[in-house]
Amino acid sequence: MEDKKFNPFKMAQQQFDGVAEKLGLDEATRELLRNPLREYHFSIPVKMDDGSVRVFRGFRVQHNDARGPAKGGIRFHPQETADTVRALATWMTWKCAVVDIPLGGGKGGVICDPHNLSMREQEQICRGWVRQIARNVGPLSDVPAPDVMTTGQHMLWMLDEYETIHGAKYPGFITGKPVGMGGSLGRTQATGYGVMFTVREALKQMNIDPKNTTASVQGFGNVAQYAIELYTKLGGKVICVSSWDQKDQTSYAFKRDSGIDLQELLSITDKFGGIDKEKATQKGYEVLPGKVWIEQEVDILVPAALENQITAETVQKINPKVKLIAEGANGPTVPEADAIIKERGIFVIPDFLCNAGGVTCSYFEQVQCNMNYYWELEEVLQKLDIKMTSAFLSVYELAKKKNLYMRDAAYMIAIDRVAKAVKARGWV
């Protein structure tokens, strides 16, 4: 999945240090913001279906909660590391700050592979995770959500365990719940739609009509699917999409010059976002190695899979036609690649702005839960559009005014807001 040398937390710190320098932050504030405030590592013993007991490693990192309760997903992944969780918690802090919602950054994880676990075993991991940390999370301190390979079902098990321990109803403890069980309408669309709200605004600033654009998308999970749906509605055409194949443990790209058909691909996709190769071929798709998604002759690239995808090596393969990169994934572009993208003048919508639709809608869910009053879908998506558009415009305007790279401008706004909060609280 990742090359052994890549450390996402080092990358998150490197990005922070560059901006801290530009902002002229004092030593204490830097020290406080470049590391998590708190982290928890724990063991989760689970009685397996065959009667044996396995011990899983779990994490929760609370990077910073100066602006509000920590917020962030829980991922189940066989290659999960403490550093990945630290990096994601750090990015969550900046993400909440850049869209200006009153939350901080957190992240959780368990080292496990849900593909090889029964639903009962996964439930035990969920409940065990909550038992280990029930005193340190909650609707007013740290609010988890789904992430890689976790779903609304996992969140409900966690909520149920939390409420059992505390003996009361706390629907605002966790977000990404199923609708009807405290979930918000629009949550499933939120991240992918948010990506496209920012793309729409970027194209406006570039005087480009979405109808005249093509795109290549990496990944075919929730974010990619809804980004493709809205992009197609805006008139754009996706000609290539890549997806991870569980059986072969590798990724494939599915290409069709006339444009992919989202519903058609969804009908041959498994629940982990893997597209059936044989059926795709029958439907007229070219099946290629997954890494070619980045080489396509398109206007827009949307990395919507994992971190560390646009590297010093792969950035060289980006077609000269590409004008815009919209980072649907977290941390897809490494700093060395950034330098080359900057040089080539490609417009980048940085990850923690581009994919902040998910956390924004999670915030809406939390608000609705705490009020015990739920909004209609139209209202959720409209509020999401307003939030994403105004966040994009404040970053774009700063970038334009100070002639900054979009990523640097987004970081400057986010880090400045958090730095002011820790100062105002008297922490530094």
Give a verbal description of the structure.
This protein is α/β, with parallel strands linked by helices and 428 residues long. It has 2 domains: 35-174, Leucine Dehydrogenase, chain A, domain 1 (Rossmann fold, 3-Layer(aba) Sandwich), CATH 3.40.50.10860; 188-349, Rossmann fold. It is 43% helix and 18% strand. The chain is built from 14 helices and 12 strands. The protein has helices at 8-23, 27-33, 82-98, 119-133, 152-166, 187-205, 222-233, 262-266, 277-282, 335-344, 351-354, 357-371, 377-402, 406-424, and strands at 38-47, 53-64, 70-76, 104-110, 142-146, 214-218, 237-245, 250-255, 286-289, 300-303, 324-326, 347-349. Strands 9-8-7-6-10-11-12 form a 7-stranded mixed β-sheet. A 5-stranded mixed β-sheet has the order 1-2-4-3-5. Helix 3 (82-98) packs across helix 14 (406-424) and helix 6 packs parallel to helix 13 (377-402). The radius of gyration is 21 Å and the shape is globular. The protein starts with 7 loop residues before the first helix and ends with a helix. GO terms for molecular function: glutamate dehydrogenase (NAD+) activity; nucleotide binding. Keywords: NAD, Nucleotide-binding, Oxidoreductase. It comes from Vecturithrix granuli.
Within CATH, the superfamily of the largest domain carries the name NAD(P)-binding Rossmann-like Domain
- Helix content estimate: 40-55%
Q: What portion of the residues fall into strands of 2 or more residues? A: 15-25%
The biggest beta sheet reads:
7 strands, mixed
Coarse morphology: globular
CATH topology of the largest domain: Rossmann fold
Strand order of the largest sheet: 9-8-7-6-10-11-12
Name of the level-1 CATH class of the largest domain: Alpha Beta
With helices defined by DSSP (H or I, 4 residues minimum), what is the helix count?
A: 14
Number of domains: 2
Radius of gyration from the CA trace? 21 Å
Number of strands: 12
Assembly classification: single chain
Low-confidence stretches: none
Distance between the termini: 39 Å
Series of H and E elements: HHEEEHEHEHHEHEEHHEEEHEHHHH
The CATH architecture of the largest domain is 3-Layer(aba) Sandwich
Summing up helix and strand content along with how strands pair, one would put the structural category as: alpha/beta
